[in-house]
Amino acid sequence: MGLLALLAACATAPPPTPPPPTPVPPPSAPGLTSLFVTAGRLNVREAPDPKAKILMKIRRGDQVMMASEENGWCKLQLPEGRIGYVMSKYVRREGLCPPNREMEILEEPPAVFGETSMGIVVLEARVDELGSIQTVRVVENTTKDPELAKLAEDDLRKMKFKPPVKNCRPTGFIYLYTRNF
Is the CB of residue 29 less than 8 Å from the CB of residue 65? Predict the structure, then answer.
């Protein structure tokens, strides 16, 4: 194969594939702000008044478009061009809502190894929306020793939690802790 044949082969190679197009975000209506409902159910009213006629109900997680906010009320742009009002404390701006997540343990008590023939202590902790343990109760104590239950509670109270987030809000939860003795 001569130099001319090699040059002909290079000339017929297909051009490189162009990169895929960059996705374009959907247009948003000018002057409107996206909000998410944080209440379980929220009344959309005809006027910014808690006694005004209810136009419709919306649910937690629904997205709505706000035209303005004043005196604790959000003026919403509804379908078919209608206007409605909701109390602003029950909605959050897009981007300010943390994603849903499960509870995380940030700090655990040190592991204790040894014989475990005396029994177990099971504790129930009520943890608030900030991740702080509020109350602890003994669910089971097969050791029958209150001192061991106290030791297990001391270990449990050393734990640090990141609470779960559901529909934009951190929530309290119940944590079960088991310690073998």
Answer: yes
pTM of the predicted model as reported, rounded to 2 decimal places: 0.50
Positions of the chain with pLDDT under 50: 3-10, 19-28
Q: What is the pLDDT of residues 74-95, one digit of tens each?
A: 999 987 788 999 999 888 876 5
Residues in the chain: 181
Neighbour tally for 121: CB within 10 Å: 26
CA-based radius of gyration for the chain: 29
Pairwise CA distance, residues 105 & 163, whole Å:
9
Domain range list for the chain: 33-93, 104-180
| CATH number among 2.40.50.100, 2.30.30.40, 3.40.1670.10, 1.20.120.80, domain 33-93 | 2.30.30.40
Give the residue among 140, 109, 113 at the shortest CA–CA distance from 124: 140
